[in-house]
Write a structure and sequence with these properties.
This protein is an alpha/beta fold. The protein has two domains: 10-23 and 249-443, Enolpyruvate transferase domain (UDP-n-acetylglucosamine1-carboxyvinyl-transferase, Chain, Alpha-beta prism), CATH 3.65.10; 26-237, Enolpyruvate transferase domain (UDP-n-acetylglucosamine1-carboxyvinyl-transferase, Chain, Alpha-beta prism). 28% of the residues lie in helices and 29% in strands. The protein contains 13 helices and 23 strands. Helix 1 (26-38) packs parallel to helix 3 (105-115), helix 8 runs parallel beside helix 12 (405-417) and helix 10 (335-342) runs parallel beside helix 12. The structure holds shikimate-3-phosphate. Its EC number is 2.5.1.19.
Amino acid sequence: MSDPSSALPLRPVRRVRFDGRLPGDKSLSHRILMLGALNRGRVKARGVLASQDVEATLRLVRALGVDVSVAPDDSGVDALAVHLAGLGPERWQEPRHVVDAGNSGTTLRLALGLVAPYPIAVVFDGDDSLARRPMRRVVDPLRRAGAAVLGRADGEYLPLAIRGGNLRPLSVRLSVASAQVKSALLFAGLGTEGEHVVEEPVVSRDHTERLLRALGAPLEVEPAGGEGARRLVLRGPFVPEGDHEIRVPGDISSAAFFLGLAAAHPDAEVVVREVGLNPTRTGFLDVLRRMGAVVEVSEEGEVWGEPVGSVRVASSRLRGVTVGAEEVPRLIDELPLLAVLATQAEGRTVVEGASELRVKESDRIAEIVRLLRPMGAEIAERPDGFVVEGPTPLRGSPGDAAGDHRLAMSFAVAAALAREGTSLLRGHEAVAVSFPSFFRLWESLEAR
Ligand code: S3P
């Protein structure tokens, strides 16, 4: 990658060819490290994502005193082989230093729930983006269960200090569909005596549930009330045991940039292999199909309850599409990319019920509009989403990733689709959060 202080030139791409693996799933990587820290026994994980966000979770695990060794894993892109030798949470130590969660909302939110049942004090901080993101959604239910949490704005913002132990059973109905909050509360339930109930209004990614069940946790998942609503019932305490091995599948959210480019590009074919196909994560593929794209999925196996397979996407004529609140959690991280693709689709694309985008690593609604308008897109901001009128030819333009990895990669897709002109991306180094090799692979798209 080039000098981080300089803007990265991104030229239109004439031909798109890719066939291979992409980096490991970020959500699964965080969860496996945390559950490995909790486990009594050894966990050997391959294909763990080697990125800044996952480093934050590794810092947490080490700060708790868990024996962890990390080596590069040559069998994958941005991949680590991680060995954890957990002795159970009773042997965790109180971190001597503030734990730096960096840019990682998943690290911070899940960690609050993970440590809450135990009588240890942990202090967290993070970067400026994470320090603007709301934490009361996790902090409030943990406080109600008995954890002590201090932080700015009464615990809404970093820095945050938590001291838990002796929690009461949790019974929480989430007002936002958030896998991070849901997972934090399930983790808190693992260390707490009693029956814990977490209800979500719309299904969000369910990796935590699948991993816990694969580890033998007494967790029931039932439909609840409205369409897509779910009730999770966990009987605590439960601490996983034994020796486990896992190979982390590729991240569909990273693959989406390659697959999305292929759909909107006139001369393209992309195949991504060994990628996670958990149905709570594949909303983007469903939306691409609704837009008229050629999407072929072949499921080839399962890892710890997670379906894995390959996805092929080739050049397609796209049409506008509507995405509503009930579908948003299944493609939440792909929505800025969808805005880019919508500029190449015939007709109107509407995304609504997605106000969560405003509290991600950046305000992704405002920022994607700011990136795409100078390129010639007709895009309008809505409080809870955006509207795009297409198709409009894009032209190269300067842009700033606003410190947000997914905006940097979405902009790269727009720059690749431009009819003319080189785009200049400032803040491209943000990709290191989830996909450090992104631009190296991107540069090779034409050559393959
Ligand atoms: C994640 C959940 C999502 C997603 C984030 C990762 C996770 O956030 O945006 O990138 O690993 O649980 P919310 O479910 O909190 O919206």
